[in-house]
Amino acid sequence: MVETTEAEEELPVETEIFGVSPNQTTAASLSSHIDALKRALHLASSNGTQRQCLEGSSTPVVEQRQKSQYVRNFPSIRQLKLLIGLYFEELNPFFPCIEEQEFMERMEQVRQDLVEDGGGLCLVVRPSSRNFFMLMYMVLAVATYLDSTSHSQKNAAPPGWQYCLMAEEISGRDHHTRLLPAELDLIRYYTVKAIYMVHIEKLTPASHSIAIAIQSAFSAHLNDESTWIDCSKSRKHARRLLWWTVFYVDRRIAQKCWKPYIIRENEFRVGELAVTEEELLSTVFDLQTHIKVEEQLVINRYVQTMIRWARLWAQVWDSMFAVSSSYGKNRAEEIEVLDAKILYAQRETHESLCWDTLFLPTYLATGETDAQIRSRLVAYVRFNLLRLLLRQSWKHTTAADARGSQICLELSNETIEAIVEYMVSQVNPIPFGLNAIECVVECICHLVPHVNKEKSIFSNSLPMSSFEGAIKFLENLSPKLGAARRALDALGEIAEKGWPPSFTSNGQVGGVQEIPCLINTAVDLGQGSFNELFVPDTWSEICFPSLEEGQVRIT
């Protein structure tokens, strides 16, 4: 008699290599080869008994556990409604992976699964609703982060972390789900989880989560619209939004982590959202429907613009930064070609997504929602930063080029100005706060090589003025958002080490131009908790351009 250890008993009993896959499109997998051989034998045999046996062997048998789980500390119904409303107001217009009406209808059923537990509420999680409840808790996690009041509380854990743990508790108890076809709720869960991890500055878990979302999307045939035969128009539209959100988040996280993206262009066949505009407009019969359709059109246009950005970023990555990139002697020509593509995409952007900082009061006065205004800003900033990346990458600076310097100065200055003006108009800086901080810091990195540069067509004070304005913005935001404090810590460490000669006012080797507003910020503001966005040890390499011949780095 062989005794099993406790560790062995806890291992999942399902295996996958020789099990029959529920995904019928995996024609080259080992299990599919075996199944094909069995079917060939079945066709060659006239034995009915054997036929029945073989047919039965091709059906996956997955034992469905019928045990319910219980999750305590469920929020009150009032708090639940507030958080979910905040999520759909602040995040869903930019990452529309959840269909709001369907989600709210399913939330009404949650009340039936609530029980009293010592004066609080306890949620009964049945196997059939497990994936939806995981998604619900992750929505609550993101919404808690977006709530400005949650950042005023002094907790060691980031806002919303308790809801993330509840979702993990639900997902961690079952192993059999990996053999079942992926549900859309599971794809949504991992996508929203990736977005949440980015918000709390945990890029490695974010990368892992979006990878699982992508694999689940492939398993559910979300990447092939031809398999959605039985779906209605509204469900097809929801699937398109989900797919393109996964597509965009994949490349955004790849950009943040500076790692290869996962989804390749030849691995999917899904219609773009521009195709659905005529279908939506044809459904307008009254004012209420018109308002809803206009809101949906804004979301569609925004997502379509982000799809263009994602594809352009992938081209930049493949051409200049991938391990086997085509980057070589014709670098200047490659930059001009890619820059022209970005400019063309900007010109093709729908007028409802165009941004002009001088028109911000007009956007507000005409009653545009914050989501509409922020959509304008994000589209504007994304393309600007992509052009900056081309002109002055952190590894291959073109700061010595007069035209490149001019473009870098203009784009950095205009982007910083746009972000600062928008954030001044916001009562709650949290929803766009981290994004704004990252973009401003990136602009600083592109701006610093040109501070007091003699060849600049601008007055010597303009780059320094933009730089100081960016630092002032971070300082003003630092009491409300920890990411601003961590960004200042990282920048402050660079200032304490001194600037390379190319940044000095006299241009002579050995000179150091200290930036007064950066000195000792790490000491004054505190280090804050560890994160992956602003790690001080890496910033000295990020912000220093490649030194020209004869220059010496000061340490």
From TrEMBL:
Coiled coil: none annotated. InterPro entries: Fungal_SecMet_Regulators (IPR051127), XnlR_reg_dom (IPR007219). Pfam families: Fungal_trans. Keywords: DNA-binding, Nucleus, Transcription, Transcription regulation. One of its GO terms (molecular function) is DNA-binding transcription factor activity, RNA polymerase II-specific. One of its GO terms (cellular component) is nucleus. Residues 85-326 form the Xylanolytic transcriptional activator regulatory domain. GO terms for biological process: DNA-templated transcription; positive regulation of transcription from RNA polymerase II promoter by galactose. This is Xylanolytic transcriptional activator regulatory domain-containing protein. It comes from Exophiala spinifera. The lineage of its organism: Eukaryota, Fungi, Dikarya, Ascomycota, Pezizomycotina.
